[in-house]
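Dear Dr. L.,

I hope this message finds you well. Following up on our conversation about the binding site, I have prepared a predicted three-dimensional model of the protein together with zinc ion. For your records, I am including the exact sequence and ligand specification that went into the calculation, followed by the structure tokens. Please feel free to forward this to your student if that is useful.
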Amino acid sequence: MKHIIEIIDQEPVLSDRLLQLCHWATDYYHHPIGDVLSNALPVSLRKGAPAQEPNLNLTITDTGKAFDPADIGRAPRQRALLQALQLKSALNKDDLRDLDIKSPVIAALVKKNLVAWQIREPDAKRSVDVIRSYDQIEPSNQQQDAINLIDQPGTYLLHGITGSGKTEVYLRAIEEVLRKNEQALVLVPEIGLTPQTLSRFTQRFTVPIETIHSGLTNRERLKAWQNAAEGKAQIVIGTRSAIFTPLPNLGLLVVDEEHDGSFKQQEGFRYSARDLAVMRGQLEKIPVILGSATPALESLHNCNLGKYKLIKLPERSAGARRETYQLLNLRNKELKSGLSPELIVQIRDELEKGNQVLVFINRRGFAPVLFCQECQWIAKCDRCDARLTLHLERRFLMCHHCGVQLRVPNKCGECHSGQFIPLGAGTQRVEETLSSIYPTYPIYRIDRDSTLSKGSLENLVNRIQEGQPAILVGTQMLAKGHHFAGVTLVAMLEIDAGFFSSDYKAMERTGQLILQVGGRAGREARQGKVMLQTQFADQPILQQLIRDGYSAFAETILAERKLNDLPPFTYQCLFRAESTQRNSAMDFLEEVSAKLPPEPSVEMLGPIPQTMEKRAGRFRAQLLFSSRSRSLLHRLVKEGVAVAQASKRSNRIRWSLDIDPVDLV
Ligand code: ADP
Ligand code: ZN
Ligand code: ZN
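The resulting structure of the complex is given below.
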């Protein structure tokens, strides 16, 4: 126990409802409340800065107006306050200070329902229209139907194909909320908050908008937080942690690209901001819109169960046609840095028509493997069970798992020859090959390495948007949030990871990736085409995805999951442990599993070493719990946590708990 040194704030920094949300998260994620609260607060507040007093007025209630101050009894300060409020129906903090009224006096009258706190109406601003401009956009019939359906508290899954105009639905729904003087919170994926996204909100609305994301300084973050808490900001757009923003008049919650993995925090307090949004919506009794072109299977499942309402936007808006898909069978094909002969021809064709081409490859660097031709040695990371990726620009080998960087050796470490060859292709190699095949066209590479410096991404995006024929090469970064009007062909060089992975979610992710990246093609008048290079062109699931679309694909996978007792038909929880000693993590998890009472309805799998056992010098293991009953699962997990905490081994290893894990490998 520690002594209280100082009372920093007169008002609680978290509202009752936010506090309720935090308590719920503590129970659900089995995570200490202290750390949950710490996650919910801006860093400055965690370090003891005062939260500015909210912009509140003390007002008199109807009961208070009719109440005779003489009946207050022997409480002169309360009587004085009531009388003051009967004369002047609202008092702000300064007035109260001048009258020397202290918190307990106010609290007593609030309790008697004679007075109440109210958010002060910001002055003149509200009288002007909330709309700046509709940009000549009239909602289409399908958009209008969607808007009409979102009319009461509840969770709505807005499943609209890429380019169907989901954002317009959000904007119209937000408009309603603003007209009622309420606030809206919009969550976007980590790299989804582009200047383009923000400008769609600022062009539409006159109201103050705050953004909350990892690029803010602590001061900026605190300011945004305060503006939201005081009701000054009427729209808050933010990434994962923005779910904890205090918004006293919250009227609507939107989670854009709800399937995106970045809504799940992957360390410490491992919460899902999407799931917390749904919970917050319930506590606040407001509508929550989850939007995506490729909804998570668990969200679709919740629609099937009737927990969420499904709203579909099956067509592209504004006359743009849907992109078409084609599989390019790679069997027995000679590739040039990952490019098949057909693709090389197609790309030239589009460029000559004056169009842009997007080439997607989800691997940065030059080549994923450096190989010795003499002795077949492969460059590996000492600290991880992983190969080193060759980056040619600055000539180093890099581990994409622990970040270690090494100079490219001159001689093979085994046989001392110099016969290295790079195998496979990453973005840099594809860029190099493309520029040798199409020397007259500009090539823009967008990945984490090419956008390291501030503003470089924006620069690249602006150049691309000028619309000259060009090739865009890049990773996922290219696929999110951007609207490139000139792109008519999207080529995905490798989509096969999902067929090899041991993670049951890999196929779902592959389907989402294909449609998200493919959806960049033909966003405006010119029809778009997507070419997918694959070794699995004859796989029915792939054919179904491109022929029948995401819903059919999702139903097939859901049926498989049901058959195999996998989420969302069962619930999972993962204990992870890691240690610098090879067997410690396994031993620790063995102990946890051995000390738990048998529970027939909960399956325990493991412990097993993780697929990449060694990472950044630590050996990692995991123990998976799975059950059809969420409550039985959580009961056992709770015991597991107690066992883990009590274990003598626990101070020599790091362990963590992941509820509803998204990454199982
Ligand atoms: P999504 O988020 O579903 O991928 P967007 O909201 O980005 O789609 O819309 C795609 C494009 O269509 C945008 O350029 C948008 O301005 C335009 N758009 C959307 N709805 C309409 C509409 N009703 N009329 C005209 N243009 C529209
Ligand atoms: Zn060698
Ligand atoms: Zn490494």
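In brief: Residues 372, 374-375, 377, 412, 414-415, 417 surround zinc ion (ligand 2) (CB under 6 Å).

With kind regards,
A. P.
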